[in-house]
Amino acid sequence: MPYVLDPPPVVALPVQGSDARFPVRRIFCVGRNYEEHAREMGADTREPPFFFTKPADALVTGNAAIPFPPATHDLHHEAELVVALGAGGSDIAPEDARALVWGYAPGNDLTRRDLQAAAKAARRPWDMGKAFDHSAPCGALVPVAACGHPARARITCTVDGKVTQDADIADMIWDVPHIIAHLSRLVRLAPGDLIFTGTPAGVGPVARGQTVRVEIAGLGAVETRIG
Ligand code: MN
């Protein structure tokens, strides 16, 4: 049966060391998953993980430049470990969660901080602060077959070469298996889902003309010039 419109293209991530790409289904993101960052955002650090989403087509791949987004005067970078799921399920136990992971990548949860702050103050949804076009730059996926399941790795963010975030993924409040376990009790996870796992302290602005780079040791980098 024909469609009344051309269907949208499949969003996909490049895979390190391969010509094949990883088709993306949904993007989930964890809020406040590093203690120092939770404190810098004025939050309690003992709450269970919470989630928000971005549309799959917010992904930016291949270190592409992006336009400065509309409707903001305070675009922030957030360096994050991205988990790509090759299998799904619900009610996953933490000890079974790693088996769902296909690969890992560095990502940047770009945020219109002024819109997010206004939404928080008005108790409205975060979507327009978080889920805008080009809001999810992500590096090439490294398959688990190549990198294993990194438990500790340095994660850094630089803006025009100046270090703004410098931490270790071991400092996450909720580690990857527990994130997957929690999320799988809220939705049925599926192959192709990505999870941005939260950012360490040091988030800050990126201005027009600047280049922001997120790097995770062993997983490469994602670099984004803001037009
Ligand atoms: Mn984030």
Explain the layout of strands and helices:
Elements: E1 12-14, E2 21-23, E3 27-31, H1 35-40, E4 50-54, E5 59-60, E6 75-77, E7 79-85, H2 94-97, E8 101-108, E9 111-112, H3 113-121, H4 127-130, E10 136-137, E11 142-143, H5 144-147, E12 154-159, E13 162-168, H6 176-183, E14 194-196, E15 204-205, E16 211-216, E17 220-225
Parallel strand pairs: 3-14, 5-10
Antiparallel strand pairs: 1-2, 3-4, 6-9, 6-15, 7-8, 7-14, 8-11, 12-13, 12-16, 16-17
The structure holds manganese (II) ion (MN).
Manganese (II) ion is lined by residues 29, 78, 80, 109, 196, 198-199.
Number of helices: 6
User: Which residues sit in consecutive blocks of at least 5 with pLDDT less than 50?
Assistant: none
Counted up, domains total 1
Query: What's the overall average pLDDT, rounded?
Result: 96
CATH superfamily membership, which one? Fumarylacetoacetase-like, C-terminal domain
Q: Which CATH class applies here?
A: Alpha Beta
CATH architecture: Alpha-Beta Complex
**Largest sheet, if any?**
6 strands, mixed
Task: Classify the fold: give the CATH topology.
Answer: Fumarylacetoacetate hydrolase, domain 2
- The secondary structure category is alpha+beta
Structural commentary:
This protein has six helices and 17 strands. It is globular and about 40 Å long. It is α+β, with helices and mostly antiparallel strands and about 230 residues long. The longest helix is centred in the middle third of the chain and has 9 residues, at about 115-120. The strands form five sheets. The chain has a six-stranded mixed β-sheet with strand order 4-3-14-7-8-11. It has a four-stranded antiparallel β-sheet with strand order 13-12-16-17, with no helix packed on it. The chain has a three-stranded antiparallel β-sheet with strand order 9-6-15. The mean pLDDT is about 95. Helix content is about 15%, strand content about 30%. The protein has helices spanning about 35-40, 95, 115-120, 125-130, 145, 175-185, and strands at about 10-15, 20-25, 25-30, 50-55, 60, 75, 80-85, 100-110, 110, 135, 140-145, 155-160, 160-170, 195, 205, 210-215, 220-225. Strand 12 (about 155-160) and strand 13 (about 160-170) form a beta hairpin. The protein has one domain: Alpha-Beta Complex (Fumarylacetoacetate hydrolase, domain 2), CATH 3.90.850. Manganese (II) ion binds near residues 78, 109, 198 and 199.
